[in-house]
Amino acid sequence: MTTMHADAPAEPPVNGQASAPRFQVHAWPLALRLLGSALQVLTALTVLYASVLVMAFTFTGSQNPVPPARAGWCALLALVLFGLTRLLRLLTTATFSVEPGQLVLERRDERFEIPLASVDVVRVWWLPPGAGFSLRMKSGRDFQYSPQVADPLPVLEAIGREKPEVSAAARHPHVVFAHARSVLASRRWYHWLIKFVLFPLVPTVIMFRANQYITYGGPFGQYQMYGLGPYLQSFGTYWAHYTGCLVVYASLLRVLFELVAFVAVWISPRHARGVRRFVEVTCAVLYYVGIPAFMGAMFLL
Questions:
Q1: CA-based nearest residue to 244, from 12, 75, 127
Q2: In sequence order, which residues have a C-beta less than 8 Å from that of residue 196 and are 6 or more positions away?
Q3: What is the Cα–Cα distance from 293 to 73, expressed in whole angstroms?
């Protein structure tokens, strides 16, 4: 492993160094960070564009409606972009330690020891990917890698305990915002599975069943008349359509309420948790309760 020093020799290790706070981070050089930001934005826009296509152009008056082919290509492109994003995250995986008198960044076969005396300012990111910070050295240069972590608050607090001059970074509104989001809005893969794969089955089943009664005279009319293939294709078309609708709806909700939360945290950082809890509960209610309620009201009117 190669050991490198930033700006000045590091102090010798002291006893108890093994207990120094260690954090799993992603260490981004500037070029890869910009590329990662661009990939995230392009992935989100591609998914949204595919969803709009499916929502707007699936049912266009034809007897056998299908989602537009362009939406499928966009979905495939989004999958490739997402894969590239995950690859970048894998390549930037690192460990960040706050040791007495120094910061240590370890990535693959490299170890960087950064004397705290050489750090001038800790600058919190304004742009993705994720939440992170950069180290401005007293030489006037930024350290070549910027750590990114879902919750930067514990990392910055640990740095602040060793170097009180930079402790203000832990109180930055972006850090408070990211901390509240990490604590109250963490997402696992099965959350996305439930939200955008299983839950769309609710409007799909309702509308598909209604169409079967209206068009074919019974819940399995199309199957009895044309066979299993066309029946399943029709069901898949409805599922794709309502999945697209829900992706667009959820995206609009999330953008609106994230902007509200961001502004509220800048105005009053101490209310970040309350604001985040309000955003998450409101978005969940409007999504999981609002959609069935809207469909029920539509059938009653």
A1: 75
A2: 243, 246, 247, 250
A3: 33
71 C-beta neighbours (distance < 10 Å), count: 22
Q: How far apart are CA 124 and CA 263, in angstroms?
A: 17
- The Cα 76–Cα 55 span in angstroms is 17
Confidence of residue 266 (pLDDT cuts 50, 70, 90): very high
Contacts 24+ apart (CB under 8 A), 268-275: 269/171, 269/173, 269/176, 272/176, 272/177, 272/179, 272/180, 273/180, 273/183, 273/184, 275/180
Four-point Cα dihedral 237, 240, 245, 250, nearest 10: 160
Q: What is the pLDDT of residues 2-11, one digit of tens each?
A: 565 555 444 4
**Nearest C-alpha neighbor of 70 from the set 199, 244, 197, 298:** 244
Is a pLDDT exceeding 50 seen at residue 265?
yes
To the nearest whole percent, how much of the chain has pLDDT over 70? Answer: 91
CA 96 from chain centre, in angstroms, equals 22
Interstrand relation of 133-137 and 2-5 (parallel, antiparallel or unpaired): unpaired
Note the pTM of the prediction, 2 decimals. 0.86
Tell me phi and psi for residue 64, to 5 degrees: -125, 80
The pLDDT of residue 9: 45
